[in-house]
Design brief:
Elements: H1 6-10, H2 13-45, H3 50-74
Helix pairs in contact: 2-3
Pfam families: ATPase_gene1 (PF09527)
Transmembrane segments: 16-38, 50-71
InterPro entries: ATPase_put
C-alpha cells in the first residue's frame, strides 16, 4: 500500500467542500452577528437604522477578514 502523495491531499474533494462550507458559515455568522448587535443597539438607544448599518458593514468586514485567514491557512 502506497502512502498518499502530498499533492493528492490538496486534490481531495471533501477538503474543498469543507473549505467552501467554512467560508459560507464564517461570512454568514459574522454578518448575522453584526446585524443582530446593530438592531439591539438601535432598540436600546432609539436610533433608527444607524447601528444596523454599522453592524452590517462591521460584520461583513470581519467575515471577509476571517475568510482571508481561512484561505491563507488552507494554502
Amino acid at each position: 500500500m502506497q502512502a498518499p502523495k502530498k499533492s493528492d491531499k490538496k486534490d481531495n474533494p471533501w477538503q474543498a467542500l469543507g473549505l467552501v462550507s467554512a467560508i459560507g458559515a464564517d461570512l454568514a455568522g459574522c454578518v448575522l452577528g453584526g446585524v443582530y448587535l446593530g438592531m439591539w443597539l438601535d432598540g436600546q438607544i432609539g436610533t433608527a437604522p444607524v447601528f444596523l448599518i454599522v453592524g452590517l458593514v462591521t460584520g461583513l468586514a470581519a467575515g471577509i477578514y476571517g475568510i482571508m485567514l481561512l484561505i491563507k491557512r488552507f494554502m
